[in-house]
Write a sequence for this structure.
């Protein structure tokens, strides 16, 4: 399975959701790093350099958008997916401006969830192959 | 004589290339139009994206948009055609999807646009997942 080659940082403040999704991710990814808000997520990102970032938007201390903005400032090509119910258009406008291109639907639909993660993994494979072929 | 034959052959090949290019542009523009609802007011907003990514200027796009009304191909037909044109190459397909994704989030990522993009994305990629 493609996702087994990748690591993921998952940021979610809601405990029950965090436990549930972490379990799903651990069964699919090589490594899963978990944080409970954007501040912790950004620190973990800098420490672990995960391949993919998956985050909720509304969180205490630092929200998912602020964290994504900081991550994109460090690595503009970093694939980031945000959980959204598509109800907060101002947030989504900002997310698109930051360069977030993948969104995971709330409530979670398993097929959409895995298709989106696989798409991000394919994007990563593609950009890595491109880098390799360049030199 | 031989030179004339070569000229005719080049002409036919060029004609085929022009027709294929147009067919590809129509199929691509049509997929974009199923993702974002482009009316006359919005056309300007998307013009630079069309020009940059599909080499389509405003007039060409308007012409293609008129053709779309009479186009009887389904979304699946267009996806199949584009995949064939891209030689079913996952790299080329991903590049193409990145362009569609830009259109889907160009206006701040509306639910309908993004979900339609995903539907198309997954049809393109189901065999690669």
């Amino acid at each position: 399975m493609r996702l087994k080659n990748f690591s993921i940082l998952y940021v979610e403040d809601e405990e029950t959701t965090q436990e549930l999704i972490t379990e799903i991710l651990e069964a699919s990814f090589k490594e899963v790093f978990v944080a409970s808000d954007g501040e912790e997520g950004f620190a973990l990102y800098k420490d672990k350099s995960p391949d993919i970032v998956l985050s909720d938007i509304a969180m205490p201390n630092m929200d998912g958008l602020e964290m994504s903005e900081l991550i994109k400032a460090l690595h503009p090509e970093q694939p980031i997916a945000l959980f959204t119910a598509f109800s907060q258009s101002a947030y989504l406008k900002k997310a698109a401006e930051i360069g977030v291109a993948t969104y995971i639907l709330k409530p979670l639909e398993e097929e959409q969830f895995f298709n989106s993660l696989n798409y991000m993994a394919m994007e990563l494979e593609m950009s890595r192959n491109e880098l390799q072929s360049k030199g | 004589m031989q030179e004339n034959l070569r000229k005719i052959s080049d002409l036919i090949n060029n004609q085929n290339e022009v027709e294929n290019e147009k067919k590809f542009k129509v199929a691509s523009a049509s997929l974009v139009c199923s993702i974002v609802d482009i009316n006359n007011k919005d056309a300007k907003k998307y013009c630079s994206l069309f020009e940059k990514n599909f080499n389509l200027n405003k007039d060409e796009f308007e012409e293609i948009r008129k053709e779309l009304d009479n186009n009887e191909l389904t979304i699946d037909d267009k996806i199949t055609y584009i995949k064939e044109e891209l030689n079913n190459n996952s790299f080329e397909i991903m590049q193409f999807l990145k362009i569609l994704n830009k259109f889907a989030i160009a206006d701040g990522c509306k639910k309908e646009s993004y979900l339609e993009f995903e539907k198309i994305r997954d049809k393109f990629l189901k065999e690669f997942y």
About this structure: Residues 27 and 73 of chain B are 9 Å apart (CA to CA). The interface with chain A takes residues 90-91, 94-95, 97-98, 101, 105-106, 108-111, 114-115, 118, 121-122, 125, 128-129 of chain B (CB under 8 Å).
